[in-house]
Structures are given as structure tokens and as C-alpha cells.
Amino acid sequence: MSYLMEISFDNDGRLRRKTYLFEYREIRFRLIQHHSREYADHLLSILPSDVISEREHAFSVASEFLSALGWANKARTAIWESGGRTWPDKLPLSKARPRVNDFRILPFKGRHIGCSIDRIPKIETEGQRIALTLYREACASNNDYLSFIFFWQILEVGCSNAEGFVDKTHRKLAKQLTTRQKDINSLPLRGRKLGEYLRDECRDAIAHIRRKPGKKKLDLNLSQDRTNSSASVRVAKTFSEYYIRENLKLRKQLCLVREGRRGFPRCIDQHFTKGHKWELAYPNIHKLS
Q1: What is the pLDDT of residue 183?
Q2: CB-based contact 142:215 (threshold 8 Å)
């Protein structure tokens, strides 16, 4: 007997379809979007057995996929293992149904519809994988202080000077950052550069509750501190997104395609979809290009 692994995930970007079959990094999944916004969605996968190494590998692949999906759809995602059971060897994945219904865990901040899994970024390096994981967790958190730490850590992936990166990028992209200029102007820089402020009064203040004399201490009971933290998170998010796109070069895409009408849907490099044998697994308004 095989093992049907159940993974629950929360996703505030509603997908166009209720179910998808797809293969990502040689692991096959069935995605089922719950009809109710009260309960989490599902990823199901048939494994040879329930040994921990196989479950960990499948969970790791699923986590990476959801990181890429959240980035592609600008949606917040969260993931956790929810159970599993034995599964008849001859029964296909398309017949799998979840038995566990977990409540959603993401705080409600509105939702958007019409999302899909047709195209997601191609994760090629360990740095990209780590950065998208941190980005997923930062966006999923309902705590500004935790979100800031994760966004700041993205700037430290392959970079020894996050503070310098912020200052250099701020000078270089002043016009492109106009959407965040109001937040930047609201911060008490007091003559300091933006990178120094974010490192000293945000990153270091969050990480070290006991600080040297003269250094800003974090006070969770002050309304103004919380207001400044919220603005800092939005600023850090903008810089982390730029860092992922440009410094970590997350530019290539995977397309969900199948070979012929009965082929199992697979996520493959968009560069290899130009051959005539590939077609979108779930045709809609998109076309292969």
C-alpha cells in the first residue's frame, strides 16, 4: 500500500479552478481549493510509504511550489502538514480526496480572484529558494516585527551588507520608489541614511531587547513605535522585492503544460514550451509564448 500525504495551505488569492493536477520537481500533486473561505485548501500527494524522509521531501517540494505561487500571484500563502493515510496502489491521484479540514490561519486583509498556477517563477538557485521562503513567511505573518526581520534577512541572502544595499538602491531608484516615499518621509531618520535607520532602529532593535546606552529601544506599548514599524515593513518589502528580482535574478518562468490531451500536467521551463507537442494543461485566457 502507498501513502496519501495531506498538506493544508492557506492562500488569499482565489484560483480560477477548484482542482489542479500538476508535477513539480518530479513530485505529483493534486491541488483542491476548498469551496468555503473558512477552511484551508489542500495539496495531496501519493508517496511510496509514510517514512519521514519521503514525507519531508514531498513537503519541502510543496513548500517551494507555494512560495513560487504566492510570488506569481502577489498572494499570501501559508503551509502545514495535516495528515495522511494508506492508499491503494492502483488508485490514481485524481481520485484522492482530503479527510482533514483545517481552519485558515492567515489574517483577513481582503482577497483577490482569478489567480492560477499556469505560470510561476523558476527557482534555480539556493539563494532564490531561501529568499522566496522568507518572503512567503514575511507576507503571511500578522506581526510587523516578525515580517520586518524576514524581509531584512532577504537582503542578507548572498549579501554581506544589507544596509549598504538599501542606501545604494535608494539613491539609484529614487524615482521608482515614489510609491513608498510617503512611508520613507514618515520615518524619524534625523539626518541618517535610510539603510542605517532600518538596520539600527528596526533590525537591531527587534533582535536585541537589551541595547547599549543611547541606542533606540523597542517599546511595544507605544503607538508611534508601532506606526513607524508598519511603515518600515512596507519599505523593507519594496526593497526585498527589488533584491529578489534584480540581485537574485528571479526572472525565468515555469509553465504548467501537458503533452497531448492525456499527459500529466508538468511545470517546465517556459523556454522548452515552444515545441508543438506542449499545450497549456488548463487552457484559459493565457497562451503559450
Answers
A1: 93
A2: no
